[in-house]
Amino acid sequence: MRLGFIGLGRMGTRMVIKLLEGGHEVVVWNRSPEKIENLKLKIKNYDWAKNLSDVSDIKSLANSLAKPRIIWLMVPAGEATEKILDQVEDDVKEGDIVIDGGNAHYTDTQKRYEHFKDKGIRFLGIGVSGGIIASRDGYPLMAGGDRSAYDYVKPILDSLAKPDGGHEYFGKGGAGHFVKMVHNGIEYGYMQSIGEGFGVLEKSPYNLDLVRIAKLYTKGTLVSGFMMDRTVEALGEDPKLEKLEGVIEASGEGEWTVEEAKKQNVPVEIIEASLKFRNRSRSDKTIASTFAARLVAALRNVFGGHEVKKKS
């Protein structure tokens, strides 16, 4: 399939490469042209690089696509997404498909879905999980919005999901981004539990080898899985994480999950506690110095490419 792709950040660049590997033709535009040049340089030795083209503006991107146009946005949620969507709206027509793959709040996606639907444009909000590692393992994709659009772009989603990811349609409007929001809330609690557990192990009177423990925990235990695999990686080069400060950023979905839960009178004590811990880590050096905080920060770096603060 042929599609337009806007946004070549950490996730977007890797997704474009995976689409090209899957045999799709991708037309890219990015606000900063140097990222387009970096992408070209990265893929120049591959045969499928010929399926990449770039344009200088969004209008040219839309004009380069056959109907029904498919335009995928992978830009920061909020104002940046709104600005791009305003421009895209001017250049798409009835029956075209617009996809927001960023971390939008589900209520924003709901409004956008209804707005584009009134104009005959098919809108999808797709939560993209898996971090930068998913470019290798396959992206889990959580879709909501126009069902016919989802069915039409399945070949694209199949390519992004290979070999071990997957995709599902959850309903109209913001359903996909709602599912992704809660996924990230669960992720906050899971990472916090790993951080705290290894914090206790690190203070053990037995001089335990944390890397060996993490490796064993991946071997069929009840806590094995993606995040424990990443724990092995995070501890690999610096088992004591002595080079890091435990300053943990938050992308917003954890907070949104807590807010939604409170509206629905659903207890989310673990998710809320993990969110508070992250917030405190950015202002309280006592929290930031803990092994738990350092490990959570290191995990975010391993699977998501998020920056970590190094000790000076």
UniProtKB/TrEMBL annotation:
Entry GO MF terms: NADP binding; phosphogluconate dehydrogenase (decarboxylating) activity
Keywords from the named record: Gluconate utilization, Oxidoreductase
Q: Does the keyword Oxidoreductase apply?
A: yes
Its GO biological process annotations read: D-gluconate metabolic process; pentose-phosphate shunt
The record's annotation in Pfam families points to: 6PGD (PF00393), NAD_binding_2 (PF03446)
Q: Which residues form the 6-phosphogluconate dehydrogenase C-terminal domain?
A: 176-312
**What InterPro entries does UniProt report for this protein, alphabetically?**
6-PGluconate_DH-like_C_sf, 6DGDH_YqeC, 6PGD_dom2, 6PGDH_C, 6PGDH_NADP-bd, NAD(P)-bd_dom_sf, Pgluconate_DH
PANTHER family membership:
6-PHOSPHOGLUCONATE DEHYDROGENASE
- What family does this chain come from, according to its entry? Belongs to the 6-phosphogluconate dehydrogenase family.
The protein depicted here goes by the name: 6-phosphogluconate dehydrogenase (Decarboxylating)
Source species of the chain? Candidatus Curtissbacteria bacterium RIFCSPLOWO2_01_FULL_41_18
